Amino acid sequence: MAGLFGLLLVSTIPSYAQMVDVQPNRAEAWKKKILIQLASKKMFPPGASGQGGAAKVKFVIDRQGKLISRELVESSGSELLDTAALSMVERAAPFPEPPTEVGDDRFNFTVPVIFTKQKQAPWAGGQWPADFVAEQGKVDAKIRGICRGC
After folding, report:
1. Contact present, 45 and 84 (Cβ < 8 Å)
2. Do 57 and 70 form a contact (C-beta atoms < 8 A)?
3. Contact 119, 125 (CB under 8 A)
4. Is the pLDDT assigned to residue 1 strictly greater than 60?
5. What is the mean pLDDT of the chain?
6. Of all helices (H) and strands (E), which one includes residue 71?
7. Closest CA to 35 of 64, 52, 59
8. Which band of pLDDT confidence, cut at 50, 70 and 90, is reported for residue 98?
């Protein structure tokens, strides 16, 4: 009986591990989750190869993580990239719900979406590098010199 009482006593006393908050700033962790979710939905538009820039998108979500609105605050200079930035926000919805200690009903975020210039691969219609073209010309000339009419 004494052993049972000791077990009950020990189980009702909170341990130090239970009292320590593992994540001291849950609001910052929540914001980080939103940024990771956005980044996972970023896509470079196929028709924009050779273009680059940064667009700023402002969006509003509610307590359930539902996207309320989104708008382009700053253009990248390319309509394709701007559209891709807005589409990224739509694809990322719904967002994680905020922690209880964050008291608002709506949350505004403004994020930069950076698109770096991408060159189209030669086999997809892009240009071959000049040094490769010159070297390939030399190889072709040697082959034609060795194998006449092959």
Report:
1. yes
2. yes
3. no
4. no
5. 81
6. strand 67-74
7. 59
8. very high
| Sheet hosting strand 53-62, strand order edge to edge | 67-74, 53-62, 106-115
Residue whose C-alpha is closest to residue 42's, from 81, 96, 94? 81
Task: Give the span between the Cα atoms of 135 and 141, in whole angstroms.
Answer: 10
| Residue 75, pLDDT score | 97
N-terminal to C-terminal alpha carbon distance within the chain: 99
* pLDDT tens digits along 26-78: 999 999 999 999 999 999 988 887 889 999 999 999 999 999 999 999 999 99
Which tokens sit at 86?
């807005």
Using a 10 angstrom Cβ sphere, with 0-12 exposed, 13-18 middle and 19 or more buried, the burial of residue 37 is middle
Kindly state the tokens that stand for 59.
């969006």
Residue 90: closest CA among 57, 115, 121, 120: 57
* Predicted TM-score of the model (pTM): 0.64
Distances in whole angstroms, Cα of residue 14 to Cα of each of 11, 20, 21, 23, 67: 7, 11, 13, 18, 40
Cis peptide, bond prior to residue 94, ω within 30 of zero? yes
Residue 135 pLDDT class (50, 70, 90 cuts): confident
